[in-house]
């Protein structure tokens, strides 16, 4: 969920009243946003620098509200949009109607798209905010909104990048081109001198903020670039704007361009920018359009502020929420969510609405989204009181109720193993390759293990193919525990399996360990016998397929001569033995878990067997 | 012997004034006397009062000299009447004895440290130091100047001496009765038990520690939650598949391919097996359609849906991946309502801290039936959380790509005196259900929460590593109380 920071006093001014923190939290809660933190500019700086709170906290410091908004509500990513949504929700403001300025096609600014752009960033949409009045706070909010959009819907500028310009420094028509980096020269924002585009990329490699966007175009033979009529560079999207057209507090006319690899998102971004800030234009809520002309002659006029009409029926809304609201009530509730609804049939019970989805509400995809807005405006907690009385959901009986055999058997075996004196542990499924193989004296077997491609640390390189590393680590961390230690785990491992759709499958394993003054090989052997006995499996002689027997094995993780394979109905289902001293004294684990030189100082025996075979 | 002495003495005399003197007079070790007094006091044969005295005891060095004599005395004796060269004298003695002996003997003016020979200055000397040390060892007092001198030579150190004065107690008897702590087989079979007197039981101490097996705390909570689900008529979903394709984990849930959750920052993608081998093709086509162009009254997300993205394998980020498979299977048969649950491991490639790990357990419940409403969802949640002892709930609108409406569930925590988030819930979107082939009037209501968080609140654990993983203290697992969720 994105979080936005807004000045509390500015927000309250925009809402036209003040709130106590608790009142404001209640308002947020019912609207579906959350007051995440209350802080001040200075406190944020202190936190970033990891400084202690200063003694002399300035009383006059502006209080900042950090507010968490839903990830699909781009219209709430700045104070202007948020305040407007809340005003409408509280019925203090009508739903605004956004209009395109009445400009003749000839007078309209034009953006010509060159064919080469299709190789790197094929789309562009533009608009103009005329006669805007900035002040310090509005200006900052305008910049912050671009940042928030870049972070969220624009997926860190990969999908869409926004450029804003002082139109009075430029001369249309504009061209959107894609040129070899060596042929683009301009002075970028915040720099004094002109750079060649390829040099600029090199220069920004040391720029903390910009270096993370370089990869988007770095390897392309051509870079996207926007020029005006006089070949002034507006921007090198998605990296940086030109210094020439930078907006300032005095800027009156703002030219906005969004270049993109995803046209739908570019339109949403442009609409979000222009609708929220057209509030400050000389003609409130009026936006001047720009014509984008593609090489094939097709032209589009942006922003696309068209209203999407969605038909929603009253029985649908009532039926899904589980209420019986009147048509008029629903219309009123939808108004509070910025959705204009018009009743299209007069029959009250079967009423249908045409809901006008404004350009600000790109999150409304389906009538179910409209239904949700009715429920939010009505109040989830108002529904609650009714729901508890006539809830059917949990009283509906499923057609049949079956237990899952594997999970039931696992639980039964867990209880048996605990009853013979073993204590259950629960360890991680993710492990390092080293723990899973080398530390157990095993070879790194690529034909077996599920390997993670993007681990954050070596602790998460693989999915365990045995419960052994987790159990041994548990002993290592509990070496002060009174001996003998008797622990067990029932859990899943994963192994590659071509027969399964995804190419891997889980196996349910039982593992147990004994650790004490002696290795207790016979104790784990006894546990194997007990588990088999409790599963009604007879001990049979070697080769007999009617029960289980054990035979000599030769696994590297166990000591030679004190290890055995468990053969159940002719199938090898597990192994037990004295843990090889080279395994139990695991100096490497030390480095991974704690930083002093520890090992497991006592002998151990370990058993692991597959319990799915016993189903 | 000590016991007889004490009880016998008190038979005729009112009081033992000082256990130290009493011991010395009878040549009994004082420690033994003290132990007996404590024991007799325990049974109230005697009353005892503490006596404390500052006394001096010999250091190890001091004790040695009581046997060997002081170093100066040893040195003096090593000098023959005719005198001896210094280096030869040194050879005759232990180095420390020689060193200390020289200094002390010279100080006492016993010897002359001549240039050629060391000679006696006097004919006979008295080893006063040894005498003083012996006196202290026997508990006799010596003069304060002597104390000072011995202390300076680190031959004695002060010690607080503890003893008792003893009188008859309420249960006094000249001879102690036979008492036992437990009934033995011999006593039991011989009939001796009739004569036995039990030692007063220590009612303030705990009983003997017991050995045995124990179940893991988190899994005890899991067991109770499973019971609650079963009581509510929910059936368990098979969740034993950690590896999942992006398709079932995301695409089938109408989660767009550019959604942040699908970033490598949040999800573990796999090198092996890197992609899925099979997907149901006709269903994949319908999912592609709904993402790209919409359908079933939806506008869709309007972007180029890529099959390669859907094929990518990952470690499931939620058990809802299993729910999507189950619902798809349900849609392939004539519709029958279902109530499903699961509690199993999920994986997130996120930074780990005190409350977050890269893997945790997700609890999920869902009801699939015709005509379900938001009211039903709230009702089911109320039922479920009431079983967990949470009766005060409120709901906050939220966003989730595959549910609409989506609600965060908050419960009022009486201990913390505030509302805490306890889970997420919603009604699955038609864009998820319809491409599966479920009938139009079928709704699915679902909710989810982690198993770790309520367990940590329940057992007052504030670091998740103390609950789950190899660093958990086995002692805590053994001591952990039973989980009473669902039986309140």
UniProtKB/TrEMBL annotation, chain A:
<dbReference type="Pfam" id="PF03484">
    <property type="entry name" value="B5"/>
</dbReference>
<dbReference type="GO" id="GO:0000287">
    <property type="term" value="F:magnesium ion binding"/>
</dbReference>
<dbReference type="InterPro" id="IPR004531">
    <property type="entry name" value="Phe-tRNA-synth_IIc_bsu_arc_euk"/>
</dbReference>
<dbReference type="InterPro" id="IPR040659">
    <property type="entry name" value="PhetRS_B1"/>
</dbReference>
<dbReference type="InterPro" id="IPR005146">
    <property type="entry name" value="B3/B4_tRNA-bd"/>
</dbReference>
<dbReference type="GO" id="GO:0006432">
    <property type="term" value="P:phenylalanyl-tRNA aminoacylation"/>
</dbReference>
<keyword id="KW-0648">Protein biosynthesis</keyword>
<keyword id="KW-0963">Cytoplasm</keyword>
<keyword id="KW-0479">Metal-binding</keyword>
<dbReference type="InterPro" id="IPR009061">
    <property type="entry name" value="DNA-bd_dom_put_sf"/>
</dbReference>
<comment type="subunit">
    <text>Tetramer of two alpha and two beta subunits.</text>
</comment>
<dbReference type="Pfam" id="PF17759">
    <property type="entry name" value="tRNA_synthFbeta"/>
</dbReference>
<dbReference type="InterPro" id="IPR041616">
    <property type="entry name" value="PheRS_beta_core"/>
</dbReference>
<dbReference type="Pfam" id="PF18262">
    <property type="entry name" value="PhetRS_B1"/>
</dbReference>
<keyword id="KW-0067">ATP-binding</keyword>
<keyword id="KW-0030">Aminoacyl-tRNA synthetase</keyword>
<dbReference type="GO" id="GO:0004826">
    <property type="term" value="F:phenylalanine-tRNA ligase activity"/>
</dbReference>
<protein>
    <recommendedName>
        <fullName>phenylalanine--tRNA ligase</fullName>
        <ecNumber>6.1.1.20</ecNumber>
    </recommendedName>
</protein>
<comment type="similarity">
    <text>Belongs to the phenylalanyl-tRNA synthetase beta subunit family. Type 2 subfamily.</text>
</comment>
<dbReference type="InterPro" id="IPR020825">
    <property type="entry name" value="Phe-tRNA_synthase-like_B3/B4"/>
</dbReference>
<feature type="domain" description="B5">
    <location>
        <begin position="305"/>
        <end position="385"/>
    </location>
</feature>
<dbReference type="InterPro" id="IPR045864">
    <property type="entry name" value="aa-tRNA-synth_II/BPL/LPL"/>
</dbReference>
TrEMBL record, chain B:
<dbReference type="Pfam" id="PF18552">
    <property type="entry name" value="PheRS_DBD1"/>
</dbReference>
<keyword id="KW-0479">Metal-binding</keyword>
<feature type="domain" description="Aminoacyl-transfer RNA synthetases class-II family profile">
    <location>
        <begin position="220"/>
        <end position="470"/>
    </location>
</feature>
<dbReference type="GO" id="GO:0005829">
    <property type="term" value="C:cytosol"/>
</dbReference>
<dbReference type="InterPro" id="IPR045864">
    <property type="entry name" value="aa-tRNA-synth_II/BPL/LPL"/>
</dbReference>
<dbReference type="GO" id="GO:0000049">
    <property type="term" value="F:tRNA binding"/>
</dbReference>
<dbReference type="GO" id="GO:0009328">
    <property type="term" value="C:phenylalanine-tRNA ligase complex"/>
</dbReference>
<keyword id="KW-0030">Aminoacyl-tRNA synthetase</keyword>
<keyword id="KW-0547">Nucleotide-binding</keyword>
<dbReference type="GO" id="GO:0006432">
    <property type="term" value="P:phenylalanyl-tRNA aminoacylation"/>
</dbReference>
<keyword id="KW-0067">ATP-binding</keyword>
<dbReference type="Pfam" id="PF18553">
    <property type="entry name" value="PheRS_DBD3"/>
</dbReference>
<dbReference type="InterPro" id="IPR002319">
    <property type="entry name" value="Phenylalanyl-tRNA_Synthase"/>
</dbReference>
<comment type="similarity">
    <text>Belongs to the class-II aminoacyl-tRNA synthetase family. Phe-tRNA synthetase alpha subunit type 2 subfamily.</text>
</comment>
<dbReference type="Pfam" id="PF01409">
    <property type="entry name" value="tRNA-synt_2d"/>
</dbReference>
<protein>
    <recommendedName>
        <fullName>phenylalanine--tRNA ligase</fullName>
        <ecNumber>6.1.1.20</ecNumber>
    </recommendedName>
</protein>
<dbReference type="InterPro" id="IPR040724">
    <property type="entry name" value="PheRS_DBD1"/>
</dbReference>
<keyword id="KW-0436">Ligase</keyword>
<keyword id="KW-0963">Cytoplasm</keyword>
<dbReference type="InterPro" id="IPR006195">
    <property type="entry name" value="aa-tRNA-synth_II"/>
</dbReference>
<dbReference type="GO" id="GO:0005524">
    <property type="term" value="F:ATP binding"/>
</dbReference>
<dbReference type="GO" id="GO:0046872">
    <property type="term" value="F:metal ion binding"/>
</dbReference>
């Amino acid at each position: 969920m994105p979080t936005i920071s807004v000045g509390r006093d500015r927000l309250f001014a925009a809402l036209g009243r003040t709130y106590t923190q608790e009142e404001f939290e209640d308002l947020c809660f019912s609207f579906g946003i959350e007051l995440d933190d209350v802080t001040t500019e200075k406190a944020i700086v202190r936190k970033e620098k990891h400084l202690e709170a200063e003694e002399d906290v300035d009383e006059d410091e502006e209080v900042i509200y950090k507010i968490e908004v839903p990830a699909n509500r781009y219209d709430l990513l700045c104070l202007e949009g948020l305040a407007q949504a809340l005003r409408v929700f509280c019925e203090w403001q009508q739903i605004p109607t956004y209009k395109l300025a009445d400009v003749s096609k000839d007078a309209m600014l034009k953006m010509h798209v060159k064919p080469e752009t299709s190789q790197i960033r094929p789309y562009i949409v533009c608009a103009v905010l005329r006669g805007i009045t900035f002040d310090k706070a509005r200006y900052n909010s305008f910049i912050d909104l671009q940042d928030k959009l870049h972070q969220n819907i624009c997926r860190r500028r990969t999908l869409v990048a926004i450029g804003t310009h002082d139109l009075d420094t430029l001369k249309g028509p504009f061209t959107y081109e894609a040129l070899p980096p060596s042929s683009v020269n301009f002075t970028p924002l915040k720099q004094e001198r002109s750079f060649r585009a390829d040099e600029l990329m090199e220069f920004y490699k040391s720029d903390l903020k910009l270096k993370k966007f370089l990869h988007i175009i770095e390897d392309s033979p051509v870079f996207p670039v926007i020029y005006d009529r006089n070949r002034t560079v507006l921007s090198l999207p998605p990296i940086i704007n030109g210094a020439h057209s930078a907006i300032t507090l005095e800027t009156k006319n703002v030219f906005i361009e969004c270049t993109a690899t995803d046209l739908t998102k570019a339109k949403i971004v442009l609409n979000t920018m222009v609708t929220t800030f057209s509030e400050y234009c000389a003609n409130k809520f009026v936006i001047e359009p720009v014509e984008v002309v593609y090489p094939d002659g097709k032209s589009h006029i942006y922003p696309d502020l068209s209203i999407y009409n969605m038909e929603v029926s009253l029985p649908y809304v009532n039926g899904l929420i589980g209420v019986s609201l009147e048509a008029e009530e629903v219309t009123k509730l939808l108004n509070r969510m910025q959705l204009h609804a018009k009743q299209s049939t007069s029959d009250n019970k079967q009423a249908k609405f045409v809901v006008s989805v404004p350009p600000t509400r790109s999150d409304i995809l389906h009538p179910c989204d409209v239904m949700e807005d009715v429920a939010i405006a009505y109040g989830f907690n108002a529904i609650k009181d009714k729901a508890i009385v006539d809830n059917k959901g949990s009283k509906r009986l499923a057609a049949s109720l079956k237990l899952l055999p594997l999970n039931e058997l696992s639980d039964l075996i867990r209880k048996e193993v605990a009853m013979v004196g073993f204590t259950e542990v629960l360890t991680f499924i993710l492990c390092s390759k080293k723990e899973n193989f080398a530390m157990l004296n095993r070879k790194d077997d690529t034909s077996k293990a599920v390997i993670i491609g993007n681990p954050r640390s070596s602790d998460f390189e693989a999915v365990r193919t045995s419960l052994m590393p987790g159990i041994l680590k548990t002993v290592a961390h509990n070496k002060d525990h009174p001996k003998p230690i008797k622990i067990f785990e029932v859990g899943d491992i994963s192994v590659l399996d071509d027969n399964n759709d995804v190419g891997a499958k889980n196996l349910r394993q039982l593992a147990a360990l004994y650790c004490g003054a002696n290795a207790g090989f016979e104790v784990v052997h006894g546990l194997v016998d007990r588990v088999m006995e409790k599963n009604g499996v007879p001990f049979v002689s070697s080769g007999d397929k009617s029960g289980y027997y054990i035979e000599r094995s030769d696994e590297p993780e166990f000591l030679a001569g004190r290890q055995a394979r468990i053969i159940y109905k002719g199938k090898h289902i597990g192994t037990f033995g004295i843990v090889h001293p080279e395994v139990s004294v695991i100096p490497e684990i030390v480095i991974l878990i704690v930083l002093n030189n520890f090992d497991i100082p006592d002998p151990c025996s370990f058993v692991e067997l597959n319990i799915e075979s016993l189903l | 012997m000590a016991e007889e002495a004490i009880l016998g003495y008190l038979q005729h005399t009112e009081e033992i004034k000082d256990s130290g003197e009493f011991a010395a007079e009878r040549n009994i070790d004082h420690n033994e006397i003290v132990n007996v007094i404590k024991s007799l006091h325990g049974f109230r044969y005697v009353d005892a009062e503490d006596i404390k005295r500052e006394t001096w005891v010999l250091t190890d060095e001091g004790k040695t000299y009581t046997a060997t004599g002081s170093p100066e005395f040893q040195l003096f004796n090593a000098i023959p009447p005719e005198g001896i060269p210094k280096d030869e004298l040194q050879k005759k003695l232990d180095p420390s004895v020689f060193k200390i002996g020289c200094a002390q003997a010279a100080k006492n003016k016993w010897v002359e440290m001549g240039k050629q020979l060391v000679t006696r200055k006097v004919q006979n000397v008295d080893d006063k130091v040894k005498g003083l040390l012996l006196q202290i060892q026997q508990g006799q007092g010596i003069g304060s100047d002597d104390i000072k001198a011995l202390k300076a030579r680190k031959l004695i150190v002060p010690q607080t001496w503890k003893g008792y004065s003893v009188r008859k107690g309420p249960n006094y008897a000249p001879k102690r009765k036979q008492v036992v702590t437990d009934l033995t087989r011999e006593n039991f079979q011989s009939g001796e038990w009739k004569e036995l007197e039990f030692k007063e039981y220590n009612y303030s101490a705990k009983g003997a520690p017991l050995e045995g097996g124990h179940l893991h705390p988190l899994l005890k909570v899991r067991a109770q939650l499973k019971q609650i689900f079963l009581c509510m008529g929910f059936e368990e979903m098979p969740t034993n598949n950690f590896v999942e394709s992006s398709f079932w984990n995301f695409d089938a849930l109408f989660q767009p391919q550019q959604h942040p959750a699908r970033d490598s920052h949040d999800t573990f993608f796999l090198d092996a097996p890197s992609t899925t081998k099979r997907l149901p093709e006709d269903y994949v086509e319908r999912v592609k359609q709904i993402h790209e162009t919409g359908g079933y009254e939806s506008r869709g997300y309007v972007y180029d849906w890529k099959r390669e993205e859907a094929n990518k394998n990952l470690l499931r980020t939620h058990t809802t991946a299993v729910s999507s498979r189950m619902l798809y299977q349900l849609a392939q048969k004539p519709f029958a309502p279902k109530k499903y649950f699961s509690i199993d491991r999920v994986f997130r490639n996120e930074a780990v801290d005190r409350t977050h790990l890269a893997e945790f357990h997700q609890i999920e419940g869902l009801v699939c039936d015709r005509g379900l409403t938001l009211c039903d969802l709230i009702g089911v949640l109320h039922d479920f959380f009431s079983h967990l002892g949470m009766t005060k709930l409120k709901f906050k609108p939220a966003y989730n790509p595959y549910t609409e409406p989506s609600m965060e569930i908050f419960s009022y925590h009486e201990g913390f005196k505030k509302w805490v988030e306890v889970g997420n819930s919603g009604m699955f979107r038609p864009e998820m259900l319809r491409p599966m082939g479920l009938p139009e009037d079928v709704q699915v209501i679902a909710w989810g929460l982690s198993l770790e968080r309520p367990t940590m609140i329940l057992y007052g654990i504030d670091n998740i590593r103390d609950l789950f993983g190899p660093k958990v203290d086995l002692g805590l697992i053994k001591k952990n109380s039973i989980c009473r969720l669902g039986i309140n």
